[in-house]
Amino acid sequence: MKFKPGQLIKTSWINDEKVSFRCVKAEDTYGLLNHLNGLVKEKAFIGLNRVLTRREGIKFVEKLLESMKEGDVPLIIEVNKKVVGWGDLRPGRHSRSHVAEIILSIDKKYRKLGIGTRMIKLLIEIAKSLKIKIISLTVVANNIAARNLYKKLGFKEVGKIPEGRRYGNKYYDEILMVKKLVH
Ligand SMILES: CC(C)(COP(=O)(O)OP(=O)(O)OC[C@H]1O[C@@H](n2cnc3c(N)ncnc32)[C@H](O)[C@@H]1OP(=O)(O)O)[C@@H](O)C(=O)NCCC(=O)NCCS
User: Fold this and answer.
1) 63-88 pLDDT, tens digit each
2) CB–CB of 117/152 below 8 Å?
3) Which site among 61, 101, 135, 179 is 20 to 30 Å from 122 CA-CA?
4) Which atom of ligand 1 is nearest to the CA of 137?
5) Which helix (H) or strand (E) segment is 77 a member of?
6) Dist CA 37 CA 61 (whole Å)
């Protein structure tokens, strides 16, 4: 299955608010940049460890759009036309084409509402449709919220890179988690 920029994948409701899960598009640059820089400012344990400039944000979204041509599925979570989250399914290439990595982040204001769970379940469904057999991800050991979320959805912790992440001048262990998909 091929996905197109901006393609709507699913909508659901949280209280009275409509939540849309759709593919990223070029117009998301400002919204996604704002989302990611918000996470950096709250010192969330994500891949970035410093804020991105506007120029870097443009490049970031360009790369996501480019990655779609290679089979990645970068999804935006939108509420009231605002980007409130981001998830990405990144199938491997060649000998790793049965394994996909996933990424997830939700704006602080929209956490603990089940949106992260819905996004991961959606990414798992998409992965199955792409014949992916294993989903993998890494998470900072201190990130209890994320570890709990993934464990609840059947991910197993299978390894650790001691001091695999750096934020400021502190090093943190990175945990590798995997889920085998049943087709
Ligand atoms: C981790 C994150 C994605 C969770 O998203 P979310 O939408 O708040 O998660 P959900 O509401 O679907 O919660 C599902 C489960 O996750 C766990 N969880 C979520 N937030 C938690 C918290 N603050 N403390 C402990 N467990 C938590 C719980 O087990 C929860 O189930 P419950 O509600 O039945 O207790 C979100 O906190 C986030 O974006 N954090 C910053 C970025 C980040 O860490 N991304 C992950 C990098 S690997």
Assistant:
1) 999 999 999 999 999 999 999 999 99
2) yes
3) 61
4) 48
5) strand 73-79
6) 14
- Classified as helix, coil or strand, 42 is coil
Quick one: tokens of 47? 């891949």
150 is written with which tokens?
Answer: 């993934």
Pairing status of strand 17-23 against strand 170-180: unpaired
Q: Which atom of ligand 1 lies closest to the CA of 149?
A: 16
What does the alpha-carbon distance between residue 141 and residue 103 come to, in Å, rounded to a whole number? Answer: 16
As a whole number of angstroms, the distance between CA 169 and CA 101 comes to: 27
Q: Which domains does the chain have, with CATH numbers?
A: 8-138 (3.40.630.30)
Q: CB of 139 within 8 A of CB of 160?
A: no
Structure tokens at 112: 């603990």
pTM above 0.85, yes or no: yes
Nearest CA to ligand 1 atom 43: 105
